[in-house]
Amino acid sequence: MRNGGSSIQSHGATHRRFSRLDGAEQECKLRDSKAALEVHNGEAVTLFSFPYGDDGPNTAQTCLALLRTACRAACLYQSGVMTASGRRV
Predict the structure, then answer these.
(1) Closest C-alpha among 45, 39, 36, 41 to residue 73
(2) What does the alpha-carbon distance between residue 16 and residue 25 come to, in Å, rounded to a whole number?
(3) What is the CATH number of domain 2-83?
(4) Three-state DSSP class for 1?
(5) How many whole angstroms separate alpha carbon 18 and alpha carbon 52?
(6) In what order do the strands lie in the sheet with 73-76?
């Protein structure tokens, strides 16, 4: 897929809903998935797609987890994209 021009990015280590995770668990799921993909693919992972489109109940907490794991933005289900600063585009 990468050779065909597709980018392999993160979707979470265990596909758990972010609304069921605290900030530390969110960060752990982001970091674990990112690390595994970077080792396997040999390139940086900077984007995330929320499992079930669920960005959790606390946008500030989720954005902090994205920033701490060097994710630039995350995809939402039916709502577009949320940048790590919390802006929805």
Answers:
(1) 45
(2) 10
(3) 3.20.20.370
(4) coil
(5) 9
(6) 47-49, 73-76, 80-83
What amino acid is encoded at 77 in this protein? Y
Global pTM reads 0.82
Query: Any alpha helices (H) in 1-89, and if so which ranges?
Result: 23-41, 59-68
> With the C-alpha atoms ordered 40, 43, 46, 52, is the resulting torsion angle positive or negative?
negative
Q: What's the full length of the chain, in residues?
A: 89
At 64-83, the pLDDT tens digits run 999 999 999 998 877 678 78
Q: Which two tokens stand for residue 20?
A: 């069921």
| Tens of pLDDT, residues 30-57 | 999 999 999 999 999 999 999 998 988 8
Tokens of 83: 């940048």
Q: Where are the domains of the chain?
A: 2-83
pLDDT score at 84: 80
